[in-house]
Design a protein that fits this description.
Elements: E1 2-7, H1 15-29, E2 33-38, H2 50-57, H3 67-77, E3 81-87, H4 95-104, E4 119-127, H5 132-137, H6 140-153, E5 157-165, H7 173-191
Parallel strand pairs: 1-2, 1-3, 3-4, 4-5
The protein binds flavin mononucleotide (FMN).
């Protein structure tokens, strides 16, 4: 089984990079495969062009899609599952990943007369500076989950999960206190990806 990992963080010196590495190690240790799009490393262009906008807005199949978009769509249709790994920036995914959805989720692929396969599973692993309690109390967690699970993923995957690694901002001591536990959780999420409903999620 193959997982397509869409990873987005501007720096290798980050909790999120370590979390992503632990997750993919879990995938390979379980005998499964992965393919990764490291959006910053690829210099993925997240800016929708006017012709792309017009194509999507008018539900057209022309002009032909750009090579970089086709490559991402091929990775989806050649995989069994998808995982998004990113830090929360202003209660959203980083702009580069938001732009990835703008450009890759095209008319005729992700909506309209779709050619995108329905994936077995989709998982979001995101790091957040704030505590889970705060994100729940303020309704911000619900907003993030709704956008990712109910709009972007919707019925495009059979099973969906949203895992938050909270209190990971550098200013919190909890970041280092939780580090090993969180890396284990990310690893186990990869390890159990295809064998268990909730993987390493708590
Ligand atoms: C520009 C920016 C915006 C951020 N916005 C939020 C936010 O809205 N909510 C939150 O919980 N954390 C926020 N954070 C904290 C990040 O999620 C942080 O990167 C995360 O704790 C993981 O650490 P890492 O960058 O070392 O991977 C923000 C960080 C930055 C740099």
């Amino acid at each position: 089984m193959k997982v397509f990992v869409v990873y987005c963080h501007p720096s290798k010196d980050s909790f999120t990079k370590n979390m992503c590495d632990a997750f993919v190690k879990g995938i390979t240790d379980s005998g499964n495969e992965y393919v990764i799009s490291d959006l910053y490393e690829m210099h993925f262009d997240p800016v929708m062009r006017e012709e792309e906008y017009l194509r999507d807005a008018y539900y057209r199949n022309t002009p032909d899609l750009c090579e970089d978009v086709l490559a991402e769509q091929a990775k989806i249709n050649e995989s069994d599952a998808i995982a998004f790994v990113y830090p929360v920036f202003w209660t959203e995914a980083p702009a580069m990943l938001v732009g990835w959805f703008d450009r890759v989720w095209t008319y005729g692929f992700a909506y309209g007369n779709r050619t995108m396969k329905v994936l077995d599973k989709a998982v979001i692993l995101c790091s957040a500076g704030n505590s889970l309690e705060y994100l729940e109390e303020t309704g911000l967690l619900e907003s993030m989950k709704k956008v990712m699970l109910e709009d972007r993923l919707k019925d495009r995957a059979e099973k969906k999960d949203f895992i938050v690694f909270d209190c990971t901002a550098r200013e919190y001591e909890l970041r280092s206190e939780n580090w090993e536990r969180y890396m284990k959780k990310a690893y186990e999420t990869g390890l159990c990806f295809f064998s268990q409903e909730d993987g390493g999620a708590e």
